[in-house]
Amino acid sequence: MSSVTRSLLAASIAAISVSVVAQGNKFPQVPLNDKRFEYNQLPYKVDTDVGLERGVQYGYNICNSTTTGAQSKCQTAIINSIDDFCLWGPPDPDSLVGNTEGEAVAWCTDPSHGTRTIPPGALQGVQFMKTPDYIQVVGFIDQTKINMRSDDYGGEMDPHGADLRGNPMGGLLYSKAWSSGGDFKQVIQWHNFMGANFFCLKACDPSKPNDRKFCEHIFDRIGCAYNAPNKAQNGTFESCMGDNQDFPGVYTQNGQVMTYTQPPEELGVIATMPYQPKVPASSQCTQYQSQTLYAKLGTVSTSASASAGKPTGSGSGSGLGGGTQTGTGQRAQQTGGAVGVRVGVGMVVLGFVGVFLLA
Ligand SMILES: *[C@@H]1O[C@H](CO)[C@@H](O)[C@H](O)[C@H]1NC(C)=O
Ligand SMILES: *[C@@H]1O[C@H](CO)[C@@H](O)[C@H](O)[C@H]1NC(C)=O
Questions:
Q1: Mind listing the pLDDT tens digit for each residue in 84-109?
Q2: Whose CA is nearest to atom 9 of ligand 1?
Q3: Cβ atoms < 10 Å from Cβ of 54
Q4: Which stretch is the leader sequence (predicted)?
């Protein structure tokens, strides 16, 4: 073999192995969930991997007064209290969470975090709760105001994801809830379900041993009702103390502790659930007026004909994926990122196709 032939051969073998590596290459060097940063020492982007399947981090993590506003790509979220929290939402209007979870940006109630702000009037009822192991904010939202399609049953954002880069990729969450000195602590385990005009965001106390279990990320199809059981009321804004929930997916039946197994997407719609989640007791609830809580967001414009004309859905019957209180399988069609499958409304369609194929 001539040396030219030999080096050509070597080159093509190298090219083949590079393309094989590139194709199967979706995992980062360090999973997002293993990365730790002080809030005041954040890098511009925490996801520094290049050449992976899902591309590069959409936004950035250093967020300040120059990044505040409607175009913000801030991916550092905050949860402190009922009047100071963020939710993950799509960067562009009319999006499905299932298609954009990797690029979600922070939408906050306080403009001081360098993020987008949740438009006035979007929050329709909010319950904040502090328990021994986590803080949680759940509520009703006009999701079209944070770029979600009105009919989106939504999905789950969390710092894991099928490729361990998180949804959103590079997304971080911080809180002052557990520090007496008022400094931000990185929340290591959290989940945020958005959909069907409902949301829940649970941030688990990083100093507690069960933070990963309370903020479990594998039940991405069963929504807030099962991942963050609550009694939030539409129209009510309250902050409470509470007991811990059961770990998501864990329940007690006839005295036996059981663990739910979420069926794979291919099996179609989850029609029934074997259990009703237990809503833990709450106490010391303080109620507020939303105008007072969210004064920094401004007020709803009275000429808001756009909002008057919004398709709101009657809330009757089908799929309130975000997790209102009614309980069973229908509403449980929450979708999203944790297991990395694109679902949303599409899943229902696939379900029907499946039925046709079987018939
Ligand atoms: C503000 O944030 C932007 C975007 O992350 C960053 O480039 C800039 O350095 C920050 N400014 C300060 C003063 O930290
Ligand atoms: C919550 O209340 C608002 C205002 O009455 C209503 O428009 C909205 O549809 C309700 N949301 C849900 C999910 O029922």
A1: 999 999 999 999 999 999 999 999 99
A2: 62
A3: 19
A4: 1-24
pLDDT in tens, 134-170: 999 999 999 999 999 999 999 999 999 999 999 999 9
Backbone angles phi, psi at 3, to 5 degrees: -65, -30
The single residue listed with the structure tokens 């809180």 is 175
d(CA 4, CA 10): 10
Domain boundaries, the chain: 3-246+278-358
CA distance 138 to 79: 12
Sole residue written with tokens 């975090």: 113
Q: How far apart are CA 336 and CA 223, in angstroms?
A: 10
Q: Counting atoms of ligand 2 from 1, which one is nearest the CA of 235? A: 2
- 262 CA distance to ligand 2 middle (Å): 29
Cα of 90 from ligand 2 centre, angstroms: 21
Cα(346) to centroid(ligand 2), Å = 24
- Helix, strand, coil percentages for the chain (3-state, nearest 5): 25, 25, 55
Whose alpha carbon is nearest atom 6 of ligand 1? 62
User: E strand or H helix at 305, and its extent?
Assistant: helix 305-308
Ligand nearest to the CA of 125: 2
Q: Which amino acid is at 91?
A: P
Question: Which amino acid is it at 25?
Answer: N
- Please give all residues whose beta carbon lies within 6 A of any atom in ligand 2, as ranges: 124, 140, 197-198, 234-235, 312, 315, 324
Model's pTM, two decimal places?
0.81
Name the residue with the closest Cα to ligand 2, atom 12. 315
| Full strand arrangement of the beta sheet holding 116-117 | 116-117, 105-108, 84-89, 76-81, 172-175, 185-186
Using alpha carbons only, what angle is made at residue 130 by residues 296 and 253, rounded to the nearest 5 degrees? 135
